[in-house]
Design brief:
By secondary structure, the protein is mainly β. The protein has helices at 179-184, 256-285, 291-320, 505-512; strands at 54-59, 63-69, 77-79, 81-86, 97-104, 107-114, 122-123, 126-128, 133-143, 146-157, 175-176, 188-191, 193-197, 200-208, 214-218, 223-226, 236-237, 242-248, 327-330, 335-340, 347-348, 353-358, 362-370, 382-386, 391-394, 401-406, 415-423, 434-440, 445-451, 456-458, 461-469, 472-477, 479-484, 487-492, 499-503. It has 4 domains: 11-169, Sandwich (Immunoglobulin-like), CATH 2.60.40.1930; 172-196 and 447-524, conserved putative lor/sdh protein from methanococcus maripaludis s2 fold (Beta Barrel), CATH 2.40.420.20; 200-210 and 361-443, Efflux pump adaptor protein, beta barrel domain (Elongation Factor Tu (Ef-tu), domain 3), CATH 2.40.30.170; 215-346, no CATH class. Strand 1 and strand 2 (63-69) form a beta hairpin. The longest helix is centred in the middle third of the chain and has 30 residues, at 256-285. The two termini are 25 Å apart.
Length: 524
C-alpha cells in the first residue's frame, strides 16, 4: 500500500526511473545497474539533491520502503535513494540484494540490481532508461529469509527532459524526522484499525496470596526461637522443611508431675484425633460425609500433635536441663518465604507470626469498587492496571480468572468487592501492595484504537503523530474514548488505515520544534 504521497493524476503520468535494454528481457549479471559504481560516504555522495524528485513510501508485512528519485528520461542516469526499514523492529536493513523491475504485460523487461546497501539501510540502484513508455515498477529486496516486493504501480519513462514532469501533492504535515533519526532512536509505527475494546470501571486492589497457597507459621507458646541457619525472605522452602525450633519457657511452679500428666493428656488427645481422622476418611471416601468434617478433624489432629510435642519438650527441658530441646517448626506448604520475623535467640510470644509462606506462582487481586459501579460488577471478566511502562491485562487470555464477586456494599467503605487470581509473572507480585485498577464489566465492541504509547499530552491536549510520508509527519489532535489495557479508543482525529507513531512519539514532537538533540540525518 502506497501512503506517503497523494497523486492528483493517474500513476501512469508520474515519471519513475527505469532502464530498458533492447528487446531481450534477460541480462547478464554484469549488466545490472550499480555494478562497480561506488556510492559511499568517502565519495561524499549526496543522497538528496536539490533537483525535483518523486517520493514514495510503501509498506509490506516485512519492510517499509521510502524511496526518492528524479523523473526518468531516456538515456539519462537516475539514482534511486531507497531506504529499507524492517517492520518487525523498525531498524534499517544492513545487508541484502535489491532488484528494480520494470514490467510490461506482466513480464519483466528490465531489471537492475545492487548487491548491498551503500550505507546502512540505504540502497542506491542506478537506472538508465532506453525506451520511453508506460511500465509497472517493482522493488524487490532479499536479505536472508526476508523477501519483500514493493509494487509502486504504473510509471512512465519520458523521451526527454522537457517532457518530464512531477505531479505529486505534498505529503500532509510539516514535521521532518529523517530515517537516520528514526533508526537511531526508539521508533515504531502501527496502522490504525478497528479493535475489540472492553469497557471498564475503576477500583483499588490489594495484592494477596491465594487462600490455598498461603500460610503463617506462628509460635505455639512463649519461648525462645532457635535455628541452625538463618532463613531470609525470598528463599524457597519445601513442604515439611524444618524452619527452626521453639524452646518453650517453663512457667513458675511447674513440676515434673504436672508435666507428666499433661503429656499423657496430650498423647490421649492425639490418639483420639488420629482415630477420628481415620474413621472420617473412610466415610468421606464412601461419600457419606462432606469434606469439611474431614478437614476439621485433620486440623484437630494437627493441634493435638503440637500440644503433645510441646509437653514432651517441656518435660525433656525440665528433667534433663537441655536448653536446646524444643518444638520443631516446619513449613506447612512449599513456597516462597515472603516474611521472616524470627531471629535466632529472640524471645517470642505465643501466637506471634514467625514465618509467612506464599505460593510464588499465583497471586490474587482483592478489588474494591465504588458502590455506584456495583450494578455492573457481576459482569466482571478481568482487569487491567498500570505497573510499568506497559499496562498489564489480567483476563482469560493471560491465564487470569475472576474467583470472587460480591454485590454487597460495605457500610464502612461504600464499596463492593471482587477478586482475580492470576499468574504472578503477568501482574504485581508484591504482597500487600495497593494498585489502581480498571475492571472489565461489559462485552467488547469494535472501536478505532491506537496504542496508549502513541498518545502525547501536549499542553493538556491529546495528540498523535501520523506518518504521512517516510520522513514526514503530521500532528493530529484526537478525542479519546475508553481504554482497554494497552489500547485506547480514538473517537475523532484519525481515520482507519493511517500509520501512527506508537513508539518514540516524543522524539517526533521534539523534531517539530526544530531541536538538534535527536540526531543528525542526511541533507535534503
Amino acid at each position: 500500500m502506497i501512503t506517503i504521497t497523494d497523486v492528483s493524476k493517474p500513476l501512469r503520468n508520474i515519471a519513475l526511473a527505469a532502464l530498458l535494454f533492447g528487446a531481450s528481457p534477460f541480462f547478464s549479471e554484469d549488466s545490472y545497474a550499480g555494478g562497480g559504481h561506488a556510492h559511499d560516504d568517502e565519495h561524499g555522495h549526496d543522497d538528496h539533491s536539490d533537483e525535483p524528485a518523486l517520493v514514495y513510501t510503501h509498506y509490506t508485512d516485512f519492510t517499509e520502503l521510502f524511496v526518492e528519485f528524479p523523473p526518468l528520461v531516456v538515456n539519462e542516469a537516475s539514482t534511486f535513494v531507497a531506504h529499507f526499514t524492517r517492520m518487525d523492529n523498525f531498524k534499517p536493513l544492513t545487508s541484502g540484494t535489491l532488484d528494480v523491475h520494470l514490467k510490461q504485460n506482466e513480464k519483466t523487461v528490465a531489471r537492475f540490481r545492487v548487491r548491498g546497501p551503500a550505507r546502512t539501510g540505504i540502497f542506491l540502484p542506478e537506472v538508465t532508461a532506453k525506451k520511453a513508455g508506460d511500465y509497472q515498477l517493482l522493488l524487490e529486496v532479499h536479505d536472508g529469509d526476508l523477501h519483500a516486493v514493493h509494487d509502486l504501480g504504473a510509471v512512465e519513462v519520458y523521451p526527454n527532459k522537457t517532457a518530464a514532469e512531477i505531479d505529486q501533492d505534498e505529503a500532509e504535515g510539516e514535521i521532518s524526522y529523517l530515517k537516520e533519526q528514526q533508526w537511531n532512536n526508539p521508533f515504531a509505527i502501527v496502522r490504525t484499525e478497528m479493535r475489540l475494546l472492553r469497557p471498564s470501571v475503576p477500583g483499588f486492589a490489594t495484592v494477596t496470596a491465594p487462600a490455598d497457597g498461603f500460610a503463617i507459621v506462628r509460635a505455639p507458646s512463649d519461648g525462645f526461637f532457635s535455628a541452625e541457619t538463618t532463613l531470609k525472605a525470598g528463599e524457597s522452602v519445601t513442604q515439611s522443611q524444618l524452619l527452626g525450633s521453639l524452646i518453650p519457657r517453663l512457667g513458675e511452679g511447674t513440676d515434673i508431675g504436672n508435666l507428666l500428666v499433661n503429656q499423657e493428656k496430650a498423647r490421649a488427645k492425639t490418639q483420639l484425633a488420629e482415630a477420628d481422622v481415620k474413621r472420617l476418611q473412610s466415610l468421606f471416601d464412601q461419600g457419606a460425609i462432606p469434606e469439611k468434617r474431614l478437614l476439621e478433624a485433620k486440623q484437630n489432629l494437627e493441634v493435638a500433635r503440637v500440644e503433645l510435642q510441646t509437653n514432651r519438650s517441656r518435660l525433656q527441658q525440665r528433667s534433663s536441663q537441655q536448653g536446646q530441646a524444643g518444638i520443631a517448626l516446619t513449613a506447612p506448604l512449599a513456597g516462597e518465604l515472603v516474611d521472616v520475623s524470627a531471629r535466632p535467640g529472640s524471645f517470642v510470644r505465643s501466637g506471634d507470626a514467625l514465618f509467612t509462606i506464599a505460593d510464588p506462582n499465583r497471586r490474587w487481586l482483592n478489588i474494591q469498587i465504588p458502590e455506584k459501579f456495583g450494578q455492573s460488577i457481576s459482569l466482571a471478566s478481568g482487569a487491567w492496571l498500570q505497573i510499568s511502562d506497559e499496562p498489564s491485562v489480567l483476563d482469560a487470555s493471560t491465564g487470569a480468572q475472576v474467583v470472587f464477586v460480591s454485590k454487597h456494599v460495605n457500610s464502612a467503605t461504600r464499596t463492593v468487592s471482587a477478586a482475580i487470581q492470576y499468574p504472578a509473572t503477568i501482574g504485581p507480585s508484591l504482597l500487600g501492595a495497593r494498585h489502581a485498577v480498571q475492571i472489565y464489566v461489559n462485552e467488547p465492541a469494535n472501536k478505532l484504537a491506537v496504542p496508549v504509547s502513541a498518545i502525547i499530552d501536549d499542553g493538556g491536549q491529546a495528540v498523535v503523530y501520523v506518518q504521512s510520508g517516510g520522513e514526514t509527519f503530521a500532528r493530529r489532535s484526537v478525542v479519546l474514548g475508553i481504554q482497554d489495557g494497552p489500547w485506547v479508543e480514538i473517537q475523532h482525529g484519525i481515520e482507519p488505515g493511517e500509520w501512527v507513531v506508537s513508539q518514540g512519539a516524543y522524539y517526533v514532537k521534539l523534531a517539530s520544534t526544530g531541536g538538534d538533540a535527536i540526531g543528525h540525518g542526511h541533507a535534503h
